[in-house]
UniProtKB/TrEMBL annotation:
Keywords: DNA-binding, Transcription, Transcription regulation. Belongs to the LysR transcriptional regulatory family. This is LysR family transcriptional regulator. It comes from the Bacteria. GO terms for molecular function: DNA-binding transcription factor activity; transcription cis-regulatory region binding. It comes from Chryseobacterium antibioticum. Residues 2-59 form the HTH lysR-type domain.
Amino acid sequence: MVNLEWYRTFKAIYKTGTLTGAADSLFISQPGVSLHLSSLEAYVGYKLFDRTGRKMMPTERGKVLFNAVSEPLSKLEDVEKNFQKSTEKLTPTISVGMCFETFQTTLEQYVSTLPFNLIISFGQYPEMLDQLDKGILDLIITPKKGVSPNIEHEAFSSEQIILVGGKNVDTNSFQKIVETKGVEHIEDWLKQEKWYGTTGDMEHLFQFWIMNFGHKPNFRPNYIVPNLNSIIRCLKGGTGLAVVPDFLCKNEIENGDLKLIWEGEKKLENTLYFGCRKKTNYQSEIEHIKGLFRKVMGKYDHVAHL
């Protein structure tokens, strides 16, 4: 099925004569414009433009298509301006991408207070960066920076990846090994314990293990649960180990429900970034969400605003 946004992009290219001009007028990335055009050309079955230098010259079939869709599309845009857009100005909709655990720990508590509509998207960081670049998302929270020139990244805090355990874990024996024996003995002790992992991203565990032991863990977690917050709730049962970002379990450690087992021989820290397009219609709404994140993350002692 054809996407109406493809026609809107086609019209913008036809009017401006360049992919860059179309991207600027639509407030989306140039790769997003290219994707819409190639999708439309694949759908109709023929080329719509000849690329001569930086200019996009419509083919004869492209001219025919423009004449066919231009007036109906303009009428549809008028309806949008007079109806949908009038309400959108009062209540805009912002699409934000982040991991599930970050949402639960930070933004979830404020959703009902937001003066605008919100769509939350969960996914892997490369996917979210791609969706931000294409205009599908307006803001992402990510520990990884993309390379698109259309996206700007703002560092706002950091997270430390730590080894935690249930309150019944024998930390005294572990600390003796840390103080008196080598890394190999530390790894042997850890592998004897019960471990929790998630069904999705295991990158925290892999990074922590590589940094401290020089290789990926050569064991599988005993218990696989849906997400990191599930791990923390399970560890409150008293036993088991897991590698998690510290801000997710700060309260549990302070309350004695969990134990901080080890920060590692070398501390593993990730910088957290706001990612957004350089050109957006929703700057004030994005700044509102950024302010909420700074408010929450400021509660954690380790956070260093950058």
